[in-house]
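We close this part of the discussion by returning to an individual protein. Part of our work consisted of pairing the sequence of a single chain with a tokenised description of its backbone. No coordinates are needed to read the tokens, only the vocabulary itself. The amino acid sequence and the backbone structure tokens for this protein are reproduced below:
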Amino acid sequence: MTTKMRSEIAEQPAALRATLDALLPRVGEVEAIAARTRHLVFVARGTSDNAAVYGRYLVEAYAGRLAALAAPSIATTYKRRIDLSGALAVGLSQSGRTEEIVETLAWAKDCGAATVAITNGGEGSPLAQAADLALCTVAGAEEAVPATKTYTTQLAALAVLALGLGAGVEAGDLARVPDAVEELIADPGDLDAVVEGLAGVQGVVVSGRGMAFSTALETALKLKEACYLHAMGLSYADLLHGPIAVVDRDTPALLVAAGEGPTLPGTVALARRVTGAGAAAYAVGGGAELAGAATASLNGPALPEWVAPMGLIVPGQLLTEALARRLGYDPDSPRGLNKVTQTQ
């Protein structure tokens, strides 16, 4: 039986095409609202927070603007005011109904920020209504609890946001993303080998850096949500500062990288270090060089680094769905989770 999660993974190329068709013509609107701002703050939780990590790297590396991840509790629990004049606050929520995110975005506006919402909840959602500008993704209804198509379309919306902020990238690269995702769904690489490698372990370290860091965090979250693994998502720079001690024969590493870019050599070196210590290193992306240093590998997208995360997450999604079934779990309905999470 095909799970809802697997069906929604397969819907991503169409969802990405629809989202890019809807949002690329709105780059000028982003430019207008961004003209009166200097820096950004992203407001999100969970999967949306992982998407925001991609947004942060994208904006800082290519648009030259300082960006940060907000702590919503400053607004909702501590109820403090911060001078946000000159800031662009970007709220991300797939449903657009997460009360904490809606409240924090409204707080940011009250503190002087210009506000943008990124949501799949539509123009009528509370988050879209709270924002000066809403960039609504076109993923369609998502029924499985683990987010797939709503996550990748969030990344597409963040790429459009970056274009509006003046990112020095080639906008035409976005047109290649849906086809690249389609290719990965059809051929994810050594999926069976990686599933079997993770089926007998209790934990895994998932690591990437730079643009791929968001993918490492999101893949780790998916493995925790649906497979109940103790999955630790880390930048490999942080991993090398101590946590690498947990990587051993019983705790493999899942290493994520685009097929190009400044973080690829470090990821390859990490794979060699892990396998040299007798542990398994499974690659996601990174081209032939990373695959050659790994125990087994999943394919990555043939895309420039700045858009690669939209494809890099797909093998991780397929791995999560297949591993959950291999372990006898239902990936559509992980225990203790709901589609919309409200923070107390």
Remarks:
- The domain at 4-169 is CATH 3.40.50.10490 (Rossmann fold).
- The radius of gyration is 19 Å.
- Residues 272 and 293 are 6 Å apart (CA to CA).
